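Aim 2, interim progress: modelling of the arginine-bound target.
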Amino acid sequence: LDEKIEMKHNYKPSIKLHKAGSLKTQLANLFEESLRLMAPEELDVNAAIAPCQNPTFGDYQCNNAMGLYKKLKGKAPQFNNPQSLAEAIIKNLPASEMIDSCSTIKGFINVKLSPDWIAMSVQKMLVDGVEAWAPRLPVKRAVVDFSSPNIAKEMHVGHLRSTIIGDTIARMLEFSNVEVLRRNHVGDWGTQFGMLIEFLFEKFPSGEVPSDQAIGDLETFYKASKQRFDGDPAFKEKAQQAVVSLQAGEEKYRKAWAHICEISRKGFERVYERLGVHLEEKGESFYNPYIPRVLELLDRQRLIKESEGARVIFIEGKKIPLIVVKRDGGYNYASTDLTALWYRLNEEKADWIIYVTDVGQRDHFEMFFTAAKNAGWLPAEKDKYPKVSHVGFGLVLGEDKKRFRTRSTETVKLVDLLDEAKTKCKEVLVERGKAAEWTEEELDKTAEAVGYGAVKYADLKNNRSTNYIFSFDQMLDDRGNTAVYLLYAHARICSIIRKSGKDVEELKESGKIVLAHADERVLGFHLLQFPEVVEEACTTLLPNTLCEYLYNLSEDFTRFYTNCQVVGSAEETSRLLLCEATAVVMRKCFYLLGITPVYKI
Ligand code: ARG
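Predicted structure of the complex, ligand included:
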C-alpha cells in the first residue's frame, strides 16, 4: 500500500474540495475525496463522520470502511478486511493542514486534528466574525408557528414554553441564513366567540363597546360567559346565532369580536415584550375565507368522505377520521390547519413548516400532515422538502410534580411569573452591594437579563419532550447548569480582558493564537464545533443541544483558566485571544437562546 491505491476509472476530484463549513463538513469533504477513489462507481458515497466517543482516540471518526467493504466484496480483492480498506482510505486522503494524524482500529478511522490548524481557525473565526461560520441549511424559507395562544382564554405556561422554544428555533434558523416567517397562529376564531359576544351585549345592552377597564380580566369574563352558556339554553341558542351573524360579517358582531381580540392581544404583548420575542400574528380567522376553496380541492381528489353527518378525511392507521366540516356545517381546528398549511406552501412558498405545541397535540398534527401527503402537497419521503415538523414539548410541573400553578390563583399569570424572576434577581444583586456600585438602570437591566434568561434557560436546557419542574430556587442558583451561572461566567471573562488593559481588537490583528497546553487545545477545539452544534440543533429541532454545548464550553474555559495563567504570562496575547473567542461564542449562544448577556457582575 505504498503508492496511491489503483483506480478503476479516471476520477477527477470535484472542485468543491475544501469548501468551508463546520469541522464535520470539512472533514467529510476530505474523506469523500478518498472514498470516491476507493469506489468510483459509488459516486454519491457520503462520509460518515462523527465525534469520537473517546477523546483519547482522536477528535472525529470516519465509519465508512465497514459498509464499503461489504459493498466492494469480490470487486476489490486487494482488501481482505475492513481494516485494510480503512488503511487505504487514510492513504488516499488529500493533503490537508487540518489533519494531524489518523489511526485505525477494526476498520474505524480516528482522526486527530492539528493544533496549529485549530489555533489558526479560531483566530480566523475571531477576525471574520462567527456569522461567517454559520451553517448552511438546504432551506430557503421556513414558517415557525409558535406561541399561538387563544383569544379570551388564558395564556398559560404551555404557551410560554411554545414562545421560548419557538423563538430559539426561529433564531437558530435565521442565523443559518434561512428566511423565517414567525407566525402567531392565535385562536381568534371559533364558536366560543358567539358566547363571548352575546355575553358582552348582555352586560352592555346599550351596544356601546366599553373600554378595556369595563371588561376587566378577560379570563374571568370568559369563565362567566361559559357559565352562562352552560347554564341557560336560551342564552346558548342566542350565542349560536351570534356565531352565524359574526361569520356572515354583520358589523355589530364584527366590532365586538375585534374588540375582544384587541384586549387579549394587549395581554399577550406584555409577555412578548418582557421576553423580547417578536412574532407576526396571522390568526385562525385569517385562513377562514380560504377554507371552502381548499376543501374543494381535496374534494376533487376524492379525499373527503361523509361520515355520521360530518365531512371527514380517513387516515390510514387511525380509527377516528380527521373531521374537516362538522355536523352543523362549521369548520374546526383541523380545517383551519389544513388551509393554513396550503397557504404556507402555495402563497408563502415556505419549504419547512414548523409547529411548536405541547406533545398532547401530536395526533392532530400527524393526521393533517398525512392528509396533506395524501393530497400530494408534501413528498411522501420524510427527509424531502417541503417538509413539516411538529415540535412537541412536555408539561411544566410545579415543585410538587403536579401541573404548574401559582399560589395565589389557580392559573399562572405569566407576566407576574416573569416579574417575580426579575424581582428575585434584583434582590440578590442588592444583597451583593450592587445598588451602591451601579446606576438604577444598570441594576434593572441586569436583573431583567438574568431573571428572564433564567426562565428561558431552565426551559430550554431539558430535552423538550420531557416534563420539567419550574423552580425559582433551581433556575436562580448561581452554581450548576443555569443561566445565572453562565451569564456570570461570561461577565468574568469580560472582566479578565478588561483588567488586562489590552486592546483585543488590536491583538486580533497583531497577535497569534497558539494552543500548546492540553486545556487550551480542548477549548479551541470546542469553540470550532459551534457551527455544527447549531446545525444539529436546527436539524433535530432540539435547542437543548445548544445549551449543553454552552455549558460544556464554560466548563472547558474554567479548566483552561484554572490551569493556564492568562494575564502576566508569556502566553498572554494568545490566551487573551482565547478568552475573547470564548466570550464571542458564548454571546452568540446567548443570542440564539434569546438571553441578553451581561458584561459585569
Ligand atoms: N392555539 C393552539 C393552542 O393554544 C395552538 C395553535 C398551534 N398552531 C397550529 N397551527 N395549530 O393549543
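Residues 58 and 112 are 5 Å apart (CA to CA). DSSP finds 24 helices and 14 strands in the chain.
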